[in-house]
Amino acid sequence: MLASNLIRIGVVIALVGLAAGIGMGIADDFRLAPAHAHLNLVGFVTLFLAGLYYAVVPEAAETTLAKIQGVAAVAGAVLFPTGISLVVMIGPQFVPVAIAGALIVFLGMALLAWIVFRFGVPLLKRPV
To answer: What does the angle CA 34 – CA 37 – CA 117 come to, to the nearest 5 degrees?
Structure first.
């Protein structure tokens, strides 16, 4: 469930990121390029890869820590680019939103790293 949810959310975020990029191109206004890039990288790539990992290592996905990681990853993937957009379009008073988003993204990745090191990567193990 966690794996498929992360993959699905990642794909939806990819569509939003692509639409934002197309919109910037049509408007010839690329001020939100940093938010667009973080939306695609943190939102799509990170969530999709985490979902694939949990699909390959389902015992890791069943842990409470993995569920916390998934929530943090999704929250950070939305909040961080939103904060960047608010800073660019409205002003520096929204820097704390971008910082909070970045820290949540870091938390999600740190939890994923802990999980990967704890459960390993079975695809990379050589048969004897």
So the answer is: 120
User: Where does the pLDDT of residue 123 fall: very low under 50, low under 70, confident under 90, or very high at 90 and above?
Assistant: confident
CB 56 within 8 A of CB 122: yes
Place of tokens 């695809």: 123
Residue-wise pLDDT tens digits, 8-55: 999 999 999 999 999 999 999 999 999 999 999 999 999 999 999 999
The answer to whether the CB of 111 falls within 8 A of the CB of 72 is yes
- Round to whole Å and give the CA distance between 68 and 86: 26
- Asked if residue 75 lies in contact with residue 104, where contact means CB atoms within 8 angstroms, the answer is yes
Query: Is residue 77 classed exposed, middle or buried when 0-12, 13-18 and 19+ CB atoms within 10 A define those classes?
Result: buried
Domain boundaries, the chain: 2-120
pTM listed for this prediction: 0.91
Rounded Cα–Cα distance for residues 94 and 13 (Å): 22
The DSSP annotation for 88-125 comes to HHT-GGGHHHHHHHHHHHHHHHHHHHHHHHHH--GGGP
